Amino acid sequence: MRVEGKDIIEPKYNYIDQAYMCEPLTQDYFVTHSYIVARNGTIIFDEAVQKVDELGLGVLKVSTPSGVYALHKSGWKVTATSYNDFKVIGDFIGYRSREKWGLMTLSGLKITDPLFTDISKYGSFYLFNFEERFDVLNLKVLVNSANNTSINVQPLYTDFEFLNNQYIWLKTDLGEVVLDGDLNEVIPYNQQKISSTTNGYLVKREKQIYLLGSDFDTKISSEYLDIRSNKSLAIVRDSSRTKVLSLVSNKVLASADSARLIGDYFGEYFRGDSTFIVFDHDSTHTFINIEQLKLINASNSSQFLTVKAIENNKKWFVYDQNGVFVLEDDYDDISAVGTEYLVVTKGEKKGLYTSNGQRLL
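^ thats the sequence. predicted structure below, dont judge the formating
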């Protein structure tokens, strides 16, 4: 009605949800006790309604005393049969019968029976869970199945990780693989350990490692007796030498007598009488005689490294994770506060610096 009380549309419904009272109608429909009505007044669902949820793609989930229906906003039921639940999964509709999920098209054509504990979508990948295992399919396979091509779901995988918004890492009881959106093996299945790096992938097989670029081409291949890695570096030891590999530039940084990793971004290696500290993005500093090293963790996952060396007059030199010099001081202790500050302690006194070395107190 108008504000002065004159009817625009004559009253005709016994019940309208309180949510519609004195509010503009912004949905494509409204719900009464016995109907769902389109904005033009057309009844699009004529059973008792308990609840209506919008699933997306123009589909409504309608809960009634007799069950749950999937309904297009046009008024067309996706299925004449009610189920326990519905959800939109990518370009399809998932339907639940008792405790199991199946998949159908938006037009109601069944792709799978309700056999799975869950069905979900990550990027271009559809995951079909069967208890603790799952299989991965894509849109093309599912559309072909809807067009009467037999679908083959084999729940072999036990774990997954979505990589760079376009690949998926998968693990079975025996090996690992990386697939692209077309389900091609860009890192072939093998008994191996695959981890992503800053600009590629590190693949560890029995006594052999491969450092791959972001396009999966092999940058380094090496035999090894032992391998350790952090976010920036890998240290590989074979029968004759130790190599320091960059996981950022995908190249060999040095051959060394021995080496070790420090925190997430640093490494230290020894060659002759010299000690080399390697930072993130391949920055390196050389020292003759290091007396002490200390790793400082900040709350935002950034890290600092403090070095006390004879050539530094036994002062502490502080570097950030990229090898940028921050400050030097003859202090007893240093710690990070939050993401922006460093606190130094000398005797009973404390000093405050910014993370780029500016003294505040």
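DSSP finds one helix and 36 strands in the chain.
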